Amino acid sequence: MTEDLRAAALEAITRSHALADPDYPLVHLAPPIGRLNDPNGLLVDSGTYHAFYQFSPFHPHRKLVYWGHASSRDLLHWTHHDPAIIPDSFYDRSGAYSGGAVVLEGDELHAAPAEAPYQFFYTGNLKDPVTDERTASQCLVTSPDLERFDKWPDNPLLPDHPAGYTAHFRDPQVWRDPDSPGSFRMLLGVQREDLTGAALLYRSSDLLSWQLEGELTFPDAGGAFDRFGYMWECPGLVRLTDELTGQVRDVLIWCPQGIEPAAEGYENIFPCVYTVGRLVGTELRECDGTFAEVDRGFEFYAPQAFARRPGEPGPATLVGWAGNASEDDQPSIDTGGWVHALTVPRVLTLRGGRLLQQPAVALPEDAPALSVVGQQLETTTAIRELEGHRSWRLRLEADPAAARWGLRIGDETCYVTVELVSDGDSTRLVVDRSHSRYTQHGDIRTVTLPTGTQPRLEVLHDRSLTEVFVGDGEIAFTLRSFVAPGASGAGLIADDRLVPKGGSAVVYD
Ligand code: FRU
């Protein structure tokens, strides 16, 4: 008898005690049990956000990835739903890997497979039990209502990788071509046969039959991305208008494994970078070959933006995995049987070719000023408004002359510090978690701020996960912050004389 994988996952979820774990986040989406990795199929539907994600309900005992599913109306409170994709077909029985969603409307809907508005594309992963040989295929799931999810009967749509590439062929992003009505495009991460990374573009008018257009190329990048790592995971394009120039740009965000640039950063096992150009055919034109990390924290990978219905207004909103490969050694696996979470959704802006990120849920304009504002501080001072709270969001501004200031989260012995340190010439963000319960894969990290970044810190702390945004979001920094389990609040570090210029906070618990 074949195993009922849906029933097995649901049964595992009923045994979960994750929610009772003091480290389980409140406003970040974490798995109900087991392991989470990449966000998948993010979409907005009539004001409700749906997040799917790589979900391993039996972790660490058995490795098998499903698509988990949760939804939220306010991007702060998430409701879990039953897993959406179960890896129980001949083409995905070693895992339903990452992919994306398209939401159809009007005529598109009538022409669509199964006439269903929600179309999900994902990678079916297959490993031969004897030879361990991998086959990767691209597959479709349709949904009429985001409650029922039907695998397309003629899956897989793309049964195997094309000639010239290895079986590392995965993570489809599908979107409607704004330059060619009635046409859809698919971007996939691949490994060439010479073991270098690349991305492939496919095109379709019915979402079922896909024609290979070719590799994504960078004609103006001086060869910068020709031999750039050994595999590209989770490539995605986001179209944004540059605030400074008014130009429409296509931002490519992807995870090139195995790059070692001679620049500050790139400390994580796998990086996530972006570059900016304009997609014409298969060419990312006007991309000069410069690239930068999307997030500078210890834990960040495989982000994707929410898909929308055509014409649905709103900003581009990105969610990342607040984790990275081989980081499953976190305390929560023992205390709560779960590991990893997604970042909060972040609004993307492009300013002069630089990507800025801010939490999509803004701090209320009318939030009262913190009591430390305007006070002269000389030592670490408890922030009264956060006392007793373990999930909160804070915005603080200091005088640009302040030499060293920031936050201490946790208690006196088990804590994380987030500081801005200036030496007159430049300012650095210094994050130190060496005194916390999780120091593997990085304990102290320094990030030099781009010139002109305002001395402003936004910190979103949620029990064991912290996201830091500096200035207008020039720097985003995600970290797991396993401070003392019961510790609440935060202290404002004022090593020198400090008079906070402005600040406000909200609490979530
Ligand atoms: C990125 C990734 C993807 C793959 C998925 C498998 O973290 O390796 O390339 O589809 O995770 O869980």
Automatic annotation (TrEMBL):
Family matches, as Pfam families: Glyco_hydro_32C, Glyco_hydro_32N
Alphabetic keyword roster: Glycosidase, Hydrolase
Domain Glycosyl hydrolase family 32 C-terminal, first and last residues per copy: 389-495
CDD domains: GH32_ScrB-like
UniProt cross-references to InterPro entries, sorted A to Z: ConA-like_dom_sf (IPR013320), GH32_Enzymes (IPR051214), Glyco_hydro_32 (IPR001362), Glyco_hydro_32_AS (IPR018053), Glyco_hydro_32_C (IPR013189), Glyco_hydro_32_N (IPR013148), Glyco_hydro_beta-prop_sf (IPR023296)
Taxonomic superkingdom: Bacteria
Keyword Ligase included in the entry's annotation: no
Domain Glycosyl hydrolase family 32 N-terminal: residue ranges: 28-359
Enzyme class: hydrolase
Signal sequence segment: none
EC nos: 3.2.1.26
A single MF term (Gene Ontology): beta-fructofuranosidase activity
GO biological process: carbohydrate metabolic process
Statement: the UniProt record of this protein carries the keyword Hydrolase: yes
UniProt similarity note: Belongs to the glycosyl hydrolase 32 family.
Protein name in UniProt: beta-fructofuranosidase
Organism this protein belongs to: Actinomyces ruminicola
Lineage, uppermost ranks: Bacteria, Bacillati, Actinomycetota, Actinomycetes, Actinomycetales
